[in-house]
Specification:
The structure holds 2 protein chains of 2 kinds. In chain A, helix 1 runs antiparallel to helix 5 and helix 2 runs antiparallel to helix 3. Chain A is mainly α. In chain B, the strands form 2 sheets. In chain B, strands 5-4-3-6-7 form a 5-stranded mixed β-sheet, covered by helices on one side. In chain B, strands 1-2 form a two-stranded antiparallel sheet. Chain B is globular, with a radius of gyration of 17 Å. Classes of the chains: A mainly alpha, B alpha/beta.
Chain lengths: 149, 164
């Protein structure tokens, strides 16, 4: 009978460790989805928000049109030259007014914000779980800090 | 609610109708003339006004514009030239177009559209009047008439655009 609480505690430990592994893997996965250097990531972002001026509702990254590809090269040159996103967007907009598909910080930001929020929630849940497990004495304290309750 | 907040973000307003290139140094243009094969450079035409004309054989307004350009090129041949730039078209089709309309002016291909992007052209026809000093002095969107090109030329001359 005395084994029951210990069994429940070790189950919680496994769950906690499992959750921690899931959180770690999620961070790793996100890192592997965006392994691009900062410059390439910026080019990709600008390609996605700048509208192909000779197309209908296509970004310059989506279009195979000559104009889109020429703009693409301009964007890459600008990024390589160290110009800011604003400067590059402004230069394109000066030539092609209205050549923006999505406002900065608009719905496109949700693509980044939602996964980031989910990861943060999962991390917080994992930490909370581990703290509670430590308080119950299921997980030994690291570094001998006297965390037991 | 989050989506609603993001959705209310206003997109960039359209820019002004004026072309930002006007008053600026004209982007370089160079290439082999489609008909003669001779290398043409906008820079080598400095000293004269140059009407840079973006056109394509598939563009109906360009067909309407071509005789007007021919008239302008002939009437103002002492002070101005026309330089065609092919917009998103094959060199063969563009050369056929020029022959069909009796073009007497050189025209260069722009297979990568780099020239078009440098001038901010998304659709032909569009023309830019470049001063003898190499500055863009007028933007003429749409099909140009000989009269409109002539007026812009006279205006530029009266303002002394050729000097600066």
């Amino acid at each position: 009978m005395a084994d029951a609480p210990r069994r429940g505690g070790s189950r919680r430990t496994f769950l906690g460790l499992g959750l921690a592994v899931v959180v770690a893997l999620t961070f790793l996965a996100i890192g592997s989805v965006h392994p691009l250097p900062a410059g390439a990531a910026r080019v990709r972002y600008l390609e996605s928000v700048l509208k192909c001026p000779s197309c209908t509702d296509l970004s310059i990254g989506q279009s195979t049109d000559n104009i889109a590809q020429a703009l693409d090269r301009d964007v890459a040159r600008g990024v390589a030259a160290g110009e800011s996103n604003d400067a590059i967007e402004s230069a394109v907009l000066a030539k092609y007014p209205g050549a923006i598909l999505e406002p900065r910080g608009g719905l496109g930001a949700l693509v980044v914000a939602i996964p980031a929020a989910l990861v943060a929630l999962a991390g917080a849940a994992g930490v909370t779980f581990l703290v509670r497990a430590r308080r119950r004495g299921v997980v030994p304290a690291v570094g001998g800090g006297g965390a037991g309750g | 609610m989050l989506i609603a907040v993001f959705a209310t973000v206003v997109s960039h307003p359209p820019g002004p109708a004026a072309n930002p290139l006007v008053g600026e140094q004209a982007p370089a243009i160079s290439g082999a003339d489609l008909l003669s094969g001779r290398v043409e450079r906008l820079g080598s035409l400095h000293g004269r006004y140059v009407l840079v004309s973006f056109f394509a054989s598939w563009c109906a307004p360009c067909a309407g514009e071509a005789p007007q350009l021919a008239s302008f090129a002939f009437t103002d041949r002492k002070v101005a030239s026309v330089l065609g730039v092919v917009f998103d078209d094959s060199a063969g089709n563009a050369a056929g177009f020029l022959r069909r309309y009796g073009a007497t002016w050189p025209a260069v291909a722009d297979p990568t559209s780099d020239i078009a992007v440098a001038y901010g052209v998304a659709n032909p026809p569009q023309s830019f009047l470049v001063s003898p000093a190499g500055r863009v002095v007028a933007w003429l969107p749409g099909a140009v008439t000989a009269g409109a090109a002539e007026r812009e030329l006279q205006k530029a001359e009266s303002e002394g655009a050729g000097v600066g």
